[in-house]
Amino acid sequence: MQRKPQESGPNTIVMYEDSQSKQNPKRNFICFGSPRCGTSMVAGAMVGLGIDMGDNLPVNIEDPAFNPDGKRHDRPAFIDGARARIQKQAEKGVIWGWKYPQAVEYLQDIRDELVSPRLIIVYRDPVPAVIRAVAGKTAQTEIDKVGVSELDKIFTLYTQNLALAKSWKVPTMLVSYERASKFPGKFLHELAGFVGLPVPINPTPILDFMKPGNYKVPPYPENYGIAPSENNSGFLRAEDG
Fold first, then answer.
1. Region for residue 56 given its phi and psi (left: phi exceeds 0; alpha: psi -120 to 50; beta: otherwise)
2. Is 34 within a domain?
3. Can you give the pLDDT at residue 56?
4. Of 21, 66, 166, 186, which has the highest C-beta tally within 10 A?
5. By the 8 A CB rule, do 48 and 192 touch?
6. How many whole angstroms separate alpha carbon 36 and alpha carbon 13?
């Protein structure tokens, strides 16, 4: 007897959403989680839907203004730069956002600048990250030390991310990387419902970007004949997708 294909359930869950937040036209999105947890995949989908994630982005889709790597020696200067970037993006009057896996490190410091933040927190099985961290190590004591340290980092970030969501109580989407990567089309519609933008008629460039593998060029809508202004209109509800 042939078994029917298993249908996917939700890939995400949305918390702290209400009728007022659903209709708020001023929205900015912050995608974060932990290193190597799939935030690039999600951020690429956000770009493909038409969210302004920054100019001249690198392949990891991280706006330098919101990436503190190499700037931690002067945290005040980094925070000032992030605030200036927020003000500049707000002046554009478009739906915008950014991605940085460990954004929880500094989000509280810029909270007052954010008018209507919406959080997208990505979760992933932590064991693959531990496997990568211990790759090439042969001594059991070293594997133990590095493996436990990597798990500590990941679970510390997960705890901090949850604490931030509970504290801010703003619309928050929790994403399962494993489910989203397995059912990318369904995930794309769930994400579109949360961000309030329609899925392109041809979503193939976004779905191709989301395939696991090496970093790829972000799927900018204008590269596929879709003007950003066409995507930055309307507010598609999740049930419409």
1. left
2. yes
3. 80
4. 66
5. no
6. 21
**pLDDT mean values, one per 10 residues, the chain (241 residues):** 60 94 89 93 95 88 94 93 94 90 97 95 92 92 94 94 97 96 95 94 92 85 63 38 36
- What the block records as the tokens of 233 is 């209109």
What is the spatial distance between Cα 168 and Cα 111, in angstroms, rounded to a whole number?
9
- Do the domain assignments include residue 157? yes
209-213 contacts: CB < 8 A, separation 24 or more? 209/41, 209/44, 209/45, 209/48, 210/41, 210/44, 210/45, 210/180, 210/181, 210/184, 211/184, 212/41, 212/181
Which residues are CB-neighbours of 32 under 8 A, at least 6 positions away? 39, 99, 100, 101, 102, 103, 104, 107, 119, 120, 121, 122, 161
What is the token pair recorded at 134? 């211990």
Has residue 197 been placed in a domain?
yes
Domain of 63 in residue numbering reads as: 12-218
Can you tell me which residue has the tokens 């918390």? 15
E strand or H helix at 185: helix 184-195
* Domain CATH code at residue 133: 3.40.50.300
pTM: 0.88
Q: Based on the structure, what is the number of domains in the chain?
A: 1
Does the residue 70 lie in any domain? yes
Nearest alpha carbon to residue 168 among 125, 118, 216, 131? 118
